[in-house]
Amino acid sequence: MSYIKLGNSKSVDPHQLLNSPTFKKINNSNLGQHFEDAIWTKVKLTNSSNQPIKVFLLNTIPLTQTLDLFVFENGVLIQHTATGAVSQGVQENTWNRFNACELSLQPKKEYTLLTKIYNPKGRIDTEWIVMSDDAYHHFLFQDSLIWGMIFGIFFLLFIFFLLLYFMHKNKFFLSYIAYMTVFWVYLFVNNGFSTYFFKDGALDLVLSHVSGYSVVIFYLLFLDGYLELTQHKKYPVVLKFLYAYGLYLALTSWVIIYTPVVYSFDNFYFLLTLVTLFAILFITTNEYVKRKNISIFYIFGQLSLIVSYLLLLLSSFQLIPMEVSYQQFLGIFSSIEMIFFTVAIFITIKHTIESAKQNEKLMLSQSHYATIGQTLKNIAHQWKVPMVRLGTLITELEAIFYKEKLSSPRIDEIVEHMRNSTEFMQNTITEFSNFYATDNKKSDFYLIDEINDVKTLLIEKMTFLNFDIVCDDSLQSSHCWGNSKSFAHVCMIIIDNAIDIANERHITNPWIKISTMSDTNRLIVHFEDNCAGITQKPIESIFELDISSHQEKERGVGLSIAKMLVEQKMGGKITVKNTQNGALFSLILSC
Fold first, then answer.
1. Are residues 161 and 177 in contact, defined by beta-carbon separation less than 8 angstroms?
2. pLDDT band at 25 (very low <50, low <70, confident <90, very high)
3. Which member of 18, 227, 334, 452 has the greatest number of CB atoms within 10 A?
């Protein structure tokens, strides 16, 4: 079916236009044009068969514009149908959301369809689709099913985010709820569903523009709250511009009802909104790449939103036809976007819960260390008097031996061992109490000092297994700014695990080599042993809380605590891999 478009005409008798040669074709986009008068179109339709045919004429634009259809048979007006939310006649066939009418074509007859369309929005779609009765009702069923699913998804997600807000009391959930609401209103109005409830076309226009442009501001509020963009120094200028643009659209869009000439700037608004969406995508992608604090599904959601908006933009510029499928695609891609956002937020919430659990276990571990430290301090305090008393008794024995003139090399050797043992016991209990004491202060410390303290605490286990700690020369001058006790705890866990594995696997002459490397603002500490490596796969899973357990000691008891200490207390990173000798742990510290 071909069609042509007529220029502006204010008050025209359709009979006068029946044979008028003044119709002309308009090929360019009419977006941004302001039509004060109605547009008349003319198309011819012929039934070349010998049987009458019942057809349905369907205009793809919903009931948001005024449409009058005049059907002529051999120059005689046989039917007049008025539809549209702001039509000035009797409403007919408004039981669906489209401008449609039923027409019976007689055999060997030619029909002329004159259509008067008034739509102050400036977008005029004049093409009629001819359908059979079955095809028309199938089309309506399919359209109702698709939109029912779209609005059903909107409703379920609305309830879901509302429950999330009441559970977590996070404001960015409210922003997303508002974003979903105005998007739903936009789709509801622009696809003709509002005509079931409102017969006022002006109200349709207000709701359409206010909801459509409010989407931008609520989307920005959600993005800002979700990514905490205002806390970054590089985004405030861009955000202020985007907020200003969104507020301008939301607050001024209603004036179009009273000054329709504003529609002449619609093309600029469409393009600026597209630029805004790409700016938001760039910010989100940049945050995903640098911070890794958001899910990739959020990027997919924004891409879906941009695809749906591009379809709307291209159809509005008439670069693609305004078909029903494109209207449905807008709702479908919007639903996909919200599903992706829901998955992304669910992953974020799950990550937050897991982080909270890890922090809780870390706090329990630190509390455990603090309790041990306090207990050892109490023990050290209780040992002071007996240790002093024992030293006094040793001195008294020496005096008696000297007075009684009881002297022999063996007695002198025993007394010397007794003195060394008591001194070692006192130093050991002091080292343990200091090691497990809670200390969150940061300072500039030498790595070798903390490693030597760990060697002192593990000397008995190392001596029993003939286990050797080999310190590279680079350690002598390596120092770092941070919490020395956290570093000592990590060294203790790695070395103690290596000793346990060497014992279980009966390693001959076991050792662990500690070395350092440094580059710009980073210090890398390597711990390599010769205990045949880690059998757990994937190897990174040894840092997981559920895997680092006593059920399989070769996986490393306490390595999950070591990972949390390095990442959260020292602001670094811990990695592991197998070498030809055994396992290699690397601490990457910012110093």
1. yes
2. low
3. 334
d(CA 118, CA 73): 24
With residue 76 as reference, give the H or E element that holds it. Answer: strand 76-83
Which class for 146: exposed (0-12), middle (13-18), buried (19 or more C-beta within 10 A)? middle
Is 204 within 8 Å of 212 (Cβ atoms)? no
Q: What six digits make up the tokens of 165? A: 């807000």
- Topology of domain 443-591 in CATH is Heat Shock Protein 90 (3.30.565)
Q: Can you read off the two tokens belonging to residue 530?
A: 């010769």
Is residue 113 within 8 Å of 70, Cβ to Cβ? yes
Which helix (DSSP H) or strand (DSSP E) does residue 185 occupy? helix 171-190
- Domain residue extents for the chain: 4-136, 142-355, 443-591
| Token pair listed for 523 | 């210090």
Two structure tokens written together for 107: 């055999």
Question: Which of 79, 4, 81, 1 lies closest to 40, judged by CA?
Answer: 4
> Is-contact 297 347, C-beta < 8 A?
yes
Q: Which residue has tokens 């510029």?
A: 317
In the numeric block, which tokens belong to residue 92?
């007919």
CA gap 524, 202 in Å, rounded:
68
- Rounded to whole angstroms, the Cα distance separating 407 from 70 reads 135
Q: Are 89 and 82 in contact (CB under 8 A)?
A: yes
Pairing label, strands 98-105, 128-132: unpaired
- Eight-class DSSP state of 24: B
- Which residues are within 8 A (CB) of 296 and not within 5 positions of it... i.e. 6 or more apart? 288, 344
Question: Tens of pLDDT along 294-327?
Answer: 778 888 888 888 888 887 777 767 677 666 676 7
Half-sphere exposure of 474 (CA within 13 A, CB side): 10
Residue position matching structure tokens 């080292």: 431
pLDDT in tens, 168-206: 787 778 888 888 888 888 888 777 777 666 665 567 767
CB-side neighbour CA atoms (13 Å) of 419 = 12
DSSP letter for each residue of 190-251: HTTGGGGT---HHHHHHHHHHHHHHHHHHHHHHHHHHHTGGGSSSSHHHHHHHHHHHHHHHH
Dig out the tokens for 91 from the structure.
Answer: 């409403």
**pLDDT score of 31:** 45
Q: Residue 370: what residue type?
A: A
In whole angstroms, what is the distance from residue 397 CA to residue 571 CA?
55
- Cis upstream peptide for 538 (omega within 30°): yes
As a whole number of Å, the CA-based R_g of the chain is 40
| Residue 341 near residue 347 (C-beta atoms within 8 A) | no
Fold of domain 4-136: Immunoglobulin-like (2.60.40)
Please give the Cα distance from 402 to 396 (Å, whole number): 10
